[in-house]
Design a protein that fits this description.
seven-stranded mixed beta sheet, alpha/beta, about 20% strand, 10 helices, globular
Amino acid sequence: MTEFTKRLMIGAKALNCEISEQGAHKLHTFMQLVLERNKVMNLTSVTDEDGFLAKHFFDSLAIAKYVKNVSTCIDIGTGAGFPGIPLSIALPGTDFTLLDSTNKKLKFIDEVSAKLSITNAKTLHERAEDAGQSDSHRDRYSTAVSRAVAALPLLCELCIPLVAIDGVFIAMKGPNFINTGEYADAQKIIKDLGGSIVSTHETDLPQLGSAEKISRTIIIIKKIRATPPKYPRNSKDLAKIYKKTV
């Protein structure tokens, strides 16, 4: 066992997520593939091993315990595959759909899945607001997750329509998020979308050596009734409505 896989497995366990040695090896290879492709394609600003472990892998695996018993999960705005690829490796019993509007990133993820024999993750090249109005994806997923950099009101409008009634949307935000104006601003749209916040969790990611402490707020929103047909609104309207917060 390499030092990297050992640290990854210990950190995952601290987050109540069990990673096998084989799974840790796959994640190590995934990191190497990301960093190699990053030389010619903008995938991440994090290029050191400790930073990658903390800011990509531990950050992704911090929500594994909330996803482990669901059948389907969609990762909105997956980018280079976070949190979708780490979660798909950690949770082989869940089927993941990784959505992004940038096709070249999804092609990279498809290459990764093939090289690492990941069979429970597929990509979807579409804008979230379009997927949310599609019969193929609206109300179809047990869980939606997003680590995308967007304000919570917008994230909720993009994600909640994709979730089946009694399913959940898991939003990943920064520390002390529930004390922010952004959290307060999201309350009305969450209700309008048919959602209800059932819990929030402040989580400290495992620290590595002298690395800075990283904390996250995980927000669990349950879909308790159908989302009205007008949501999500089209991209032009969303840009106007959320221009101050996106």
